[in-house]
Design brief:
The chain is α/β, with parallel strands linked by helices and about 575 residues long. It folds into 3 domains: about 140 residues, ATPase, nucleotide binding domain (Nucleotidyltransferase, domain 5, 2-Layer Sandwich); about 150 residues, ATPase, nucleotide binding domain (Nucleotidyltransferase, domain 5, 2-Layer Sandwich); about 200 residues, DHBP synthase, CATH 3.90.870. It contains 20 helices and 20 strands. The strands form 4 sheets. An 8-stranded mixed sheet has the order 13-20-19-14-15-18-16-17, with helices on both faces. It starts with a strand and ends with a strand.
């Protein structure tokens, strides 16, 4: 049975394809259109998924959309009437009527698909993406984001193939919207820059916990409640916060302007409140569900600092966070939920029993012949590297502090480049962080970089265990930070990626050769893109990014590409 999952019309549109219970392809639309967080119908992503599987739209048995448009419409009507927000209501109704209510029509126009379409709730799609991806037979499932239809947080019990909703927090009360509001006040972009607040938080002190507690109350049962006097997201589409927040803390930071101690301390306080909220929700989940396993999804689940604290202080022994935790991952959850509930219980159980390791390498790939054709068309200066030469030559360049664009195999699904669309560099060079931020990524100087390490070596360098998706930020081991200055954040943590040979043999082999050469099996791994652009998708995307930045060499497939002198 072939099921296509779709998410779109808010941000991070995506498509995911499940064939006989296996996830065979998934991609975000932004990678193809080159528009960051593209929300439009995922025509290119869906076509790409079908192409990768060798299928056409006629081969699909079912398409599942990641939320219920009529429930979203209900919220718009109810909230518009409750708060007299006519301008916001008009805009929301226009968006809903233009997009979400005619998914069948969009599918027909994009793919020629005229078959069965079903819908799942937004937070149920998040929950499904996490629960079925984790591979456990029983787990608590916690979903936290800004808002879906009505829900802003969901608690589920995953048991067998079933997901039972146990509780939810409803709009406008939202831990995610609190964090996004402060993101906007601090001069960053909502639904894009929340991770910047997380990174900036380490440079400040949480001096404003009491003051921010006027905005949001956290309760022992895991619920949250916003003081709407400080917010405007429910009233208009132009501003998240109200004049009362400005009266309390002063004028909001102008985007791209200087960052002051107030901003650092507010970021630290905002992050601390988020962490307390997540801990409270997890404790409530454990009290309700019990057990040792927790699955998480939703945009808030991408906060790797909060995840690491939950790992240290929370009640669950095992935590699995869906790598594509944001709305893009809703496409995967919709497809998985629809498949598991369309087939027999026996077929669902058989597929779950396989217990395959989850991989984010679900996007398109290009053969060496196709890569060579692109390089020839561009007149690029390149050298083929055979066998071990690919790794020894790359490691030698990295040891000379050369910055490498590393482009291999299938593109990653989700916001993290995990060794196939990556920029790699030497973490032992204390200047490398500033070089990458200023000359390659073109971004703020406070932004940290993640280390990639072989899974068998992680315990010697970092606290915590396996972390394949950069979703936890454990402490760097004592004494290690001085050896790895460009990946050790100011608070002594690092957003670690552990690399398993089964998941990514090429990247694992490069780390092995690098470790043999230097004695340090750790590399800087950052996404292959520049600020404001999606991660590169095609060889042409990678080559253009290479030329526009201070990346020194591009290793694409088996080809080493140099810049003209």
């Amino acid at each position: 049975m072939n099921v296509l999952g779709i998410s779109c019309d808010f941000h991070d549109a995506a498509a995911a394809l499940v064939v006989d219970g296996r996830v065979v392809a998934a991609s975000e639309e932004e990678r193809f259109t080159r528009r960051k967080h593209d929300a439009s119908f995922p025509t290119h992503a869906a076509q790409g998924c079908l192409r990768q599987a060798g299928l056409t739209a006629a081969d699909l048995d079912l398409v599942c959309f990641y939320e219920k448009p009529l429930l979203k419409l209900e919220r718009a009507l109810v909230m518009g009437a409750a708060f007299g927000a006519e301008a916001r209501l008009t805009r929301q109704l226009t968006e809903i009527m233009a997009g979400r209510l005619d998914i069948p029509g969009a599918l027909k126009a994009a793919l020629g698909y005229t078959g069965r379409v079903q819908y799942t709730e937004h937070h149920l799609a998040h929950a499904a993406s996490a629960y079925y991806g984790a591979g456990w037979e029983r787990a608590a499932v916690l979903t936290i984001d800004g808002v879906g239809e009505w829900a802003t947080t969901g608690l589920y019990l995953g048991e067998g193939r079933d997901l039972h909703k146990l509780n939810e927090i409803r709009y406008p009360h939202s831990l995610g919207l609190f964090y996004s509001t402060m993101t906007a006040y601090l001069g960053f972009k909502v639904n894009n820059d929340e991770y910047k607040v997380m990174g900036l938080a380490s440079y400040g002190q949480p001096r404003y916990i009491e003051a921010l507690s006027e905005l949001i109350e956290l309760y022992e049962d895991g619920s949250v409640r916003l003081n709407l006097d400080y917010f405007e997201f429910h009233l208009n589409s132009e501003r998240m916060y109200s004049d009362k927040l400005i009266e309390r803390f002063g004028p909001p930071r102008v985007p791209e302007s200087e960052i002051h101690d107030l901003h650092r301390d507010l970021a630290a306080s905002t992050q601390e409140i988020l962490e307390r909220g997540v801990l409270g929700m997890a404790r409530a989940a454990h009290a309700r569900v019990g057990g040792e396993a927790l699955c998480m999804a939703g945009g808030v689940a991408l906060n790797c600092v909060a995840n690491a604290r939950l790992q240290r202080e929370g009640p669950f022994k095992h935590i699995w966070v869906q790598p594509a935790a944001g709305d893009g991952g809703g496409a995967l959850g919709a497809a998985l939920y629809a498949w598991h509930h369309a087939v027999s219980a026996e077929e669902s159980a058989a597929r779950r029993a396989e217990g395959a390791r989850y991989s984010t390498l679900l996007g398109p790939s290009w053969s060496d012949e196709e890569i060579r054709a692109v390089l020839d068309a561009e007149g690029a200066d390149y050298t083929p590297l055979e066998g071990e030469a690919l790794y020894t030559r790359t490691a030698a360049l990295l040891a000379e502090d050369q910055i490498i664009g590393w482009y291999q195999g299938r593109m990653e699904y989700g916001p993290r480049a995990l060794g196939n669309r990556s920029i790699l560099a030497n973490p032992m060079n204390p200047e490398m962080k500033d070089i990458l931020n200023a000359r390659v990524k073109f971004r703020e100087d406070f932004r940290p970089f993640a280390p990639a390490v072989r899974v068998e070596d992680v315990g010697a360098w970092f606290e915590g265990g396996e972390s394949p998706f950069m979703l936890f930020a454990p402490a760097v081991k004592p004494g290690v930070g001085a050896r790895l200055p460009s990946i050790t954040h100011v608070d002594g943590t690092a957003r670690v990626q552990t690399v398993h040979p089964e998941d990514n043999p090429r990247f694992h082999r490069l780390l092995s050769v690098w470790g043999e050469r230097t004695g340090v099996p750790v590399l800087i791994n950052t996404s292959f893109n520049v600020r404001g652009e999606p991660i590169v998708c095609s060889p042409a995307d990678a080559y253009r990014c290479f030329l526009r930045t201070d990346i020194d060499f591009l290793v694409m497939g088996r080809f080493l590409v140099e810049k003209d002198a």
